[in-house]
From TrEMBL:
Keywords: Membrane, Transmembrane, Transmembrane helix. Residues 553-594 are annotated as: Disordered. Residues 44-294 form the Alpha-carbonic anhydrase domain. This is Alpha-carbonic anhydrase domain-containing protein. GO terms for cellular component: plasma membrane. SUPFAM superfamilies: Carbonic anhydrase. GO terms for biological process: nitrite transport. It is a multi-pass membrane protein. It comes from the Eukaryota. It comes from Fusarium oxysporum f. sp. cubense. Residues 583-594 have a biased composition (Basic and acidic residues). It is found in: Membrane. Its main location: membrane.
Length: 594
């Protein structure tokens, strides 16, 4: 026993140290630099892991919830590509001096401009206006997906107008390749994301960066927003078609200095993808958007270089895993009291399914227990994790997993001891309440309560299937809850329309009246409570309150039609129709970090 305890302690300490060490292995000469506190994860009232409720936690962030041009959005190849004629008059010198630092989420660079005369900075023109480079920063993983593929990172070159207001972003996706990239080869050693108070002066050749993506000769463009609170709109995004490939070592350095900073993707609405905005009607021929079919792109196929996997398995590296744990802990610490209580209560209910399933399997085979007790123990244990699977997939709170996450973020000083104790105590109490509530349901063998349990699990199956992006995941998401309700003996009113009448046909001793009164009515009412309250209202309370992409009247804006699967908006850039698909969720950052 003593040896096993020592081994467990050693394993835990090793995991903590391995997670933490990537924050501290950078050494260079720094000088102090003020960082906006909104760029520091531990000092904000929002987190990337909880971007769905940014608009609820602060009225200044209402655009995060109500905006119609929020970023990022999913990119689909069928949207076509814009060509380089939209971007012109590149004025990027060979050398640009500025400060290299970490903005709290990854590597960043700000052009030196003490007088804030922006017209002296590197620039380019689009839509008959000129914008000037303010700096750049890196998101990990990438903000934008193309055909659901998300790159390891994304670099944003942030540009302002002559008055210093953010106006345009050149976005470049980053992935590991088979050789080093010359732009990243000139960077100083990376600064860890915990070292936001330090920076180093550097002179960089940004032409090397633009040459790596052929000066945006093919790209997607749309009207978007900041990808973090306050989610200000009016930002023009240009996303390079080619991916910039780094060496594996360079990518490891970038990710080692980064923490999770990808906002959930937003629904496509008024983004006007690949539309030339300043010329709406009666445009001269050279002003219209020149569209290119993806199959005609010179980057179609393998994107010039093979993608090199950094790992032998498709999983996060230890530093990346710990970054995700950090963001999860910060999000848990910032949960409102009501959300924490409801999530903890349902966490107790979900986790109860595991031991109940275990009892059903173990108690249903007394002969096997006598003849082969090890086998029945193994079979029962196989069903036990179902509760934890539902806890993770529905993102509710469980005190035993929070013990690890909250302790890690508290040791990192990203959350306080008060945050840790609040989370542990509330989760413990309401996990207990959820388990006791579930105990009442399973021991009160009326058809009404069995109907509640049935449709509650059916509602969860609908949620899990909706959250899945491929058919196999949908099947598994549906299978687990339905498997559970059948094995636990819960009642499904529609299934009973077949099961009970077929029993009546074969000579059962009750009639239609007894079936209706004792089975159909109570089971139907229980199904309503389970599906509408235990599943529908539960999901609305946690994720759906004030979440609308409509006007104040609750109706979509005129001239557009919004749907979850497809959005069509008439755009007159070339007297055609812009069709955008693959719309999903939400996303964004700080005024100076787009």
């Amino acid at each position: 026993m003593r040896i096993s305890q020592l081994f467990a302690v050693a394993t835990y300490v090793t995991s903590v140290l391995s997670c933490a060490k990537h924050n501290n292995h950078y050494s260079l000469k720094h000088k102090k630099r003020h960082i906006d506190p909104r760029a520091e994860p531990g000092k904000t009232d929002w987190a990337y892991e909880a971007s769905y409720n940014w608009g609820r936690i602060n009225p200044d962030y209402h655009l995060c919830q109500d905006g119609t041009q929020q970023s990022p959005i999913p990119i689909a190849l069928k949207q076509g590509l814009s060509l380089e004629h939209l971007i012109k008059e590149w004025n990027y010198p060979d050398e640009v001096t500025g400060n290299f630092f970490n903005w709290g989420y990854g590597p960043a660079f700000t052009v030196q401009n003490e007088d804030q005369i922006w017209t002296q900075n590197p620039s380019f023109s689009f839509d008959n206006e000129t914008v000037y480079l303010k700096g750049w920063h890196i998101h990990a993983p990438a903000d934008h997906t193309v055909e659901r593929h998300r790159s390891r990172a994304e670099l944003h070159l942030v540009h302002v107008n002559a008055q210093g207001k953010e106006r345009a972003v050149l976005a470049i996706r980053l992935d590991p390749g088979n050789k080093a990239n010359s732009f990243f080869g000139q960077l100083p050693k990376m600064i860890g994301f915990n070292e936001t108070d330090v920076s180093e002066e550097a002179t960089l050749n940004h032409r090397l960066l633009l040459e790596s993506v052929d000066y945006f000769d093919e790209f997607w463009t749309y009207e978007g927003s900041l990808t973090s609170p306050p989610c200000t709109e009016g930002i023009r995004f240009f996303i390079a078609r080619p991916i910039l490939f780094t060496s594996v070592q360079q990518m490891r350095a970038i990710l080692g200095a980064s923490t999770y900073s990808a906002r959930e993707e937003q629904l496509v609405w008024r983004h006007r993808i690949n539309v030339y905005l300043t010329c709406i009607t009666n445009c001269p021929q050279e002003s219209k958007t020149i569209m290119l079919n993806y199959t005609d792109s010179k980057y179609a196929g393998d994107e010039r270089q093979p993608h090199v996997s950094m790992e032998k398995v498709d999983a996060h590296s230890p530093p990346e895993t710990c970054q995700l744990m950090t963001q999860s802990g910060i999000a848990k610490a910032k949960l409102p009291w009501a959300d924490l209580i409801v999530k903890s209560f349902f966490g107790g209910i979900f986790i109860s399914l595991g031991p109940l399933f275990d009892l059903v399997v173990a108690g249903g085979a007394p002969g096997l227990r006598e003849s082969n007790p090890s086998l029945i123990t193994l079979l029962a244990a196989f069903t036990f994790p179902i509760g934890f699977v539902l806890v993770i997939l529905t993102n509710v709170e469980l005190v035993r997993s929070n013990m690890t996450v909250m302790m890690y973020t508290t040791l990192q000083r990203k959350t306080s001891v008060y945050d840790l104790l609040k989370n542990w105590v509330v989760c413990y109490i309401f996990n207990l309440a959820g388990c006791l509530f579930f105990t009442v349901i399973i021991n009160w063998w009326f058809n009404f309560t069995r109907g509640i349990g049935c449709n509650w699990l059916v509602g969860l199956a609908v949620y899990l299937a909706t959250s899945s992006k491929d058919n196999l995941s949908k099947i598994v998401g549906i299978w687990i809850p339905i498997w559970a309700f059948v094995a636990l003996g819960y009642q499904h009113s529609v299934a009973n329309f077949f099961l009970v009448p077929i029993g009546m046909f074969y000579g059962t001793n009750f009639g239609v009246g007894k079936f209706t009164y004792q089975s159909n009515i109570p089971v139907t009412l229980g199904n309503i409570v389970g599906g509408a309250v235990m599943a529908g209202a539960f999901l609305w309370f946690l994720y759906g309150r004030d979440d609308t992409l409509a006007t104040k009247t609750g109706q979509p804006l005129s001239g557009e039609r919004k749907s979850r699967g497809r959005h069509v908006a008439n755009s007159s850039g070339s007297e055609g129709e812009t069709v955008t698909t693959e719309n999903h969720g939400r996303s964004r950052r700080d005024d100076s970090m787009v």
